[in-house]
Design a protein that fits this description.
Number of domains: 1
Strand content: 15-25%
Helix content: 25-40%
Number of strands: 6
Largest sheet: 6 strands, antiparallel
Strand order of the largest sheet: 1-3-2-6-5-4
Distance between the termini: 55 Å
């Protein structure tokens, strides 16, 4: 018998409470990330990602709920802010950015950039397989999800289009955090 892709997600997702506790613990779990001084370990990396510790089916698919998505967005933004407040002054370049992808919420993450050149080229996606186009400035993801009162921060949104050999994908990706200089440069 061949393996089949479970498009209906008929199986029960186990450990939902534990996974939600892990999501809620994200901001506290990164509090000591910069406890060491800027060492060679940071210098050798261009970036580091903190992905959502949650089952794919809870944030995408037929069993996903808006409340869980909103919670994940909130925790990504809080994690980003926690890392921003703990950046060591000794590091020559550190930028912290939360990226929220919709409808592909599972690929959302908090990224810590250590390389200025990599960061400056990160937002430039105009290749044949992936393109990002800046969304209109009157759009605001945080207002749409009723999070703008809790997080009065600016961000930038892109329409993402990916073309692969087998399929294509179109969605949105929003960036919050240390993107202020980039927002000013791209307007």
């Amino acid at each position: 018998m061949a393996r089949q892709l479970d498009l209906q997600q008929k199986r029960k997702i186990r450990g939902v409470r534990r996974q939600l506790k892990d999501v809620l613990a994200m901001p506290a779990s990164v509090a000591h990330f910069f406890s060491e001084s800027c060492s060679e370990a940071y210098d050798q990396r261009r970036h580091l990602d903190y992905k959502l510790p949650i089952h794919f089916g809870l944030v995408e698919g037929i069993k996903s709920k808006p409340g869980i998505k909103r919670l994940c967005m909130r925790m990504l933004l809080r994690t980003c802010i926690a890392l921003q407040h703990n950046k060591p002054p000794a590091c020559p370049f550190v930028r912290v950015v939360a990226s929220i992808s919709l409808p592909a919420m599972f690929s959302s993450r908090v990224t810590v950039f250590f390389d200025e050149e990599y960061f400056s080229h990160f937002f430039d996606r105009k290749g044949p397989g992936q393109t990002w186009a800046i969304l209109p400035s009157n759009r605001n993801l945080l207002q749409q999800w009723q999070l703008s009162q809790e997080f009065p921060i600016n961000g930038i949104g892109y329409r993402e289009h990916i073309v692969d050999e087998d399929c294509s994908y179109t969605g949105e990706i929003w960036f919050y955090g240390d993107v202020g200089e980039f927002i000013l440069a791209s307007d």
